[in-house]
């Protein structure tokens, strides 16, 4: 289990808005913003889930995709909501919500490219 993950983003404000909207349906919320220079580094924003896992974005050298991030969703409806929110927040569709039986019979996922071109997924493994 991953406790937390951080990535460098190209446009901090755009990515902050994107992830705030895209991750809300799967249970993440913005919990802290650390300004540039606070600890000698760039600006960072942390998004936290009730399960204790964190996802951080920050400023730094320009990121180089590809990178694939998958966030577990509590339901298929949350996957659908993630996809809609992510596209509305400026993400590019990279796979509409639906079953992906090549992984397993109940693998329900959606994919969106974030502002830096990373493949961001929401996935639910539960039966309907």
- Rg calculated over all Cα atoms: 14 Å
Q: What is the second-level CATH architecture?
A: Roll
Largest sheet: 4 strands, mixed
Round the mean pLDDT to the nearest integer and report it.
Answer: 91
Organism: Scleromatobacter humisilvae
Protein name: VOC family protein
Domain VOC: 1-125
InterPro entries: Glyas_Bleomycin-R_OHBP_Dase, Glyas_Fos-R_dOase_dom, VOC_core
Offer a concise description of the structure:
With 128 residues, this protein is of the alpha/beta class. It is 20% helix and 38% strand.
List the SSEs and their pairings:
Layout: E1 4-8, H1 12-23, E2 28-34, E3 44-49, E4 54-58, E5 68-72, H2 76-88, E6 92-99, E7 108-113, E8 119-124
Parallel strand pairs: 1-4, 5-8
Antiparallel strand pairs: 2-3, 3-4, 6-7, 7-8
How does this structure look, described?
- β3 and β4 form a beta hairpin.
- It is globular, with a radius of gyration of 14 Å.
- The protein has one domain (4-124): 2,3-Dihydroxybiphenyl 1,2-Dioxygenase, domain 1 (Roll).
- α1 packs antiparallel against α2 (76-88).
- It has a four-stranded mixed beta sheet with strand order 1-4-3-2, covered by helices on one side. The protein has a four-stranded mixed beta sheet with strand order 5-8-7-6, with helices on one face.
- With 128 residues, it is of the alpha/beta class.
- The longest helix has 13 residues, at 76-88.
- It has two helices and eight strands; from the N terminus they run βαββββαβββ.
- Residues 1-125 form the VOC domain.
- InterPro entries: Glyas_Bleomycin-R_OHBP_Dase (IPR029068), Glyas_Fos-R_dOase_dom (IPR004360), VOC_core (IPR037523).
- It comes from Scleromatobacter humisilvae.
- This is VOC family protein.
């Amino acid at each position: 289990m991953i406790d937390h993950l951080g990535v460098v983003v190209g446009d901090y404000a755009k990515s902050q808005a994107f992830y705030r909207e895209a991750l809300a349906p799967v249970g993440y919320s913005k919990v802290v913003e650390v300004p540039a220079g606070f600890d000698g580094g760039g600006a960072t924003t942390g998004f936290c889930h009730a399960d204790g896992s964190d996802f951080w974005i920050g400023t730094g050298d320009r990121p180089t995709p590809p990178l694939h991030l998958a966030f577990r969703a509590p339901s298929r409806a949350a996957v659908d909501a993630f996809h809609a929110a992510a596209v509305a927040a400026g993400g590019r569709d990279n796979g509409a919500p639906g079953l992906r039986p090549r992984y397993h019979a109940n693998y329900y996922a959606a994919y969106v490219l974030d502002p830096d071109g990373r493949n961001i997924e929401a996935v639910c493994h539960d039966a309907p």
